[in-house]
Amino acid sequence: MTTTTSPTAPVGSPGGAPQPPRSARRRWPEGRATRAFRWLATGAGALILVVLAAVALFLIVRAWPALTADGATLGEDISWFPDDSSLLRFVGPLVFGTLLAAVLALLIATPISIGIALFISHYAPRRLANGLGYVIDLLAAIPSVVYGLWGAIWLAPRLSPVWQWLSETLGFIPLFAGPAADPPRVILTVGVVLAAMILPIITAVCREVFLQAPRLHEEAALALGATRWEMIRMAVLPFGRSGIVSAAMLGLGRALGETMAVLMILSPGALYSFNLLQAGQHQTIAANIALQFPEADPTGVSVLIATGLALFVITLAVNMAARAIVARRKEFSGAN
Amino acid sequence: MTTLTPGAAPVAPDPSDQTRAMLAGSDRRRRVTDRVATGLVVTAFLIALVPLVSVSWTVVSNGFERLSPYFLSVSMRGVFGGMDAGGIYHAIVGTLLITTVAALISVPIGLLAAIYLVEYGRGRLARWVTFFVDVMTGIPSIVAGLFAYAFFAVLFGPGVRFGVVGSVALSVLMIPVVVRSCEEMLRLVPNELREAAYALGVPKWLVVIKVVLRTAVAGLGTGIMLAVARVIGETAPLLITVGVIDSINFNVFEGRMMSLPVYVYRQYSQGLVPCAPGAADCIATINYDRAWAAALTLIIIVMLLNLVGRLITRFFAPKTLR
């Protein structure tokens, strides 16, 4: 014992004095390289937020001239901009067409995706399941322009008789009012192609969720004498409901922003129309941008960027809602 | 054994028989519903195979004929009308250059961001980054193109079109994919390895580089390959940022460039050629033929990238983890 021992220090701590080294280690100066590396990594993380903010910022900056100009000036400057209209009235039908195409795709794709996901998670033999999942993922690897080519040249002529038949037998429903366009460059064809494109993402998310369904609930249902379908309805689907909703919304986000398939198949128009089988009625924001952008003058570019801003806001809202549902599900689901 | 003997319940009619009858003879409606559901589920799967099979088949059967060494080695310069000539060399060059630059931009950023999330990520910033990486995955590709255009228009004035603009657009789409897959791979590295290295007094940055990244290198390679495969087929952002051109351009900093997906779209949109009757050197469907052949090339490149990505995992995983 030395005489300089402070009175507060523990006198008889067994095992020497572990306290001073530990606190010293905590204060140990971080090496220069370690600190630089930490800042580098943190900077990269922050950069992602900066990029997202920059996307919004630059779009607003370039869209500003169009956002502030009045409709008459725009109509004079731009050949494809309708006279005595306003930016809002120009964007309206485009937003409508975008939503219509995406919703059609979603209505077709969601039930099929749920079926595929159930097949892979609960019906297919265990050894096959992984391979089948991979096959469905291959669908996502095909570039969108190839889907467009396939939809326009191969699929459209084959769908034409089906649409004719639909308009003849169900024509009394306004949705299917005839005459069906031939070649069928119509929004329903686009919906079918978009559905094929968003199948993989919806299926992937649903499959994950269905595989997480509590095994004990499933076995309990089977033990009570439920058939396989009743087991799925009682144990799997209720568990996966929010997962299905968020999967569908992710698919919706994908379909909203899809450009090439729409551009290559749809014959454009600018109406608020529910005639799914008639050509020249609808156009989507993304396809309109790709169509007009290469030949647009500065004012036209500004208008197109303004419509792109609208698309950005819509998809951002849909995606954030989907992610929020996923996050909430993690908090409230009793199974986790 | 003894409790289940029939003699144990002599008064009432045998209850185990009753139960068995109830279980075995479930009513017909339920069984039919089950069958119908099974049928629907299997049908859904078969329906999903229709686009996959027919896309692959139509692309291969339509594109195979025109795909030749000649087609791969010439550009479209001086090709017009229904001439039986022209190829995709300039488009392949453009696609490879633009995608490489995009990968050079997004792999370091994405990898470092993933390292941040796994090794350092605590608190609000990490939560925000995780959430917005997910949100960013859903940015429409055309919006990414508009952003890159607007960004360079502010820097260099309106109307600029060169390769790097397209690369920046692709990076916006690629970074979140790289972050997601790399993060997943880094989380698989067992904590014991990190702790063992710390115990030896290795500084953190060396632990990350020599231990964590080395252990995960195969998975990272796969993730990056799949991310490249995802953006290499993007059309819309390149169409509006890089434009179209018929000749070869190796300079990503100047002048327009062609890329494979844009080439497919361009040929398709030019449509059928009006051929004079009896013209010898005129093929009416030449543009569609070229589009199919270029689409086939594109699909082959994408599938090769997918395959290489999966092979990396198989051959380059550290020996200890096999």
From TrEMBL, chain A:
InterPro entries: MetI-like, MetI-like_sf, Phosphate_PstC, Phosphate_Transport_Permease. The keyword Transmembrane applies. It is a multi-pass membrane protein. Its main location: membrane. CDD domains: TM_PBP2 (cd06261). GO terms for cellular component: plasma membrane. Keywords: Cell membrane, Membrane, Phosphate transport, Transmembrane, Transmembrane helix, Transport. The chain crosses the membrane at residues 36-61, 94-120, 132-156, 186-206, 243-266, 301-322. It is found in: Cell membrane. Residues 95-322 form the ABC transmembrane type-1 domain. Residues 1-29 are annotated as: Disordered. One of its GO terms (biological process) is phosphate ion transport. GO terms for molecular function: phosphate transmembrane transporter activity. It comes from the Bacteria. Pfam families: BPD_transp_1 (PF00528). PANTHER family: PHOSPHATE TRANSPORT SYSTEM PERMEASE PROTEIN PST, PHOSPHATE TRANSPORT SYSTEM PERMEASE PROTEIN PSTC. Belongs to the binding-protein-dependent transport system permease family. CysTW subfamily. Part of the binding-protein-dependent transport system for phosphate; probably responsible for the translocation of the substrate across the membrane. This is Phosphate transport system permease protein. It comes from Cellulomonas aerilata. The lineage of its organism: Bacteria, Bacillati, Actinomycetota, Actinomycetes, Micrococcales. The gene is pstC.
Automatic annotation (TrEMBL), chain B:
Residues 1-20 are annotated as: Disordered. One of its GO terms (cellular component) is plasma membrane. One of its GO terms (biological process) is phosphate ion transmembrane transport. SUPFAM superfamilies: MetI-like. It comes from the Bacteria. Keywords: Cell membrane, Membrane, Phosphate transport, Transmembrane, Transmembrane helix, Transport. GO terms for molecular function: phosphate transmembrane transporter activity. The keyword Glycoprotein does not apply. It is found in: Cell membrane. The chain crosses the membrane at residues 36-60, 88-117, 129-156, 162-179, 211-232, 291-312. It is a multi-pass membrane protein. Residues 92-309 form the ABC transmembrane type-1 domain. The keyword Transmembrane helix applies. Part of the binding-protein-dependent transport system for phosphate; probably responsible for the translocation of the substrate across the membrane. Belongs to the binding-protein-dependent transport system permease family. CysTW subfamily. PANTHER family: PHOSPHATE TRANSPORT SYSTEM PERMEASE PROTEIN PSTA. This is Phosphate transport system permease protein PstA. The gene is pstA.
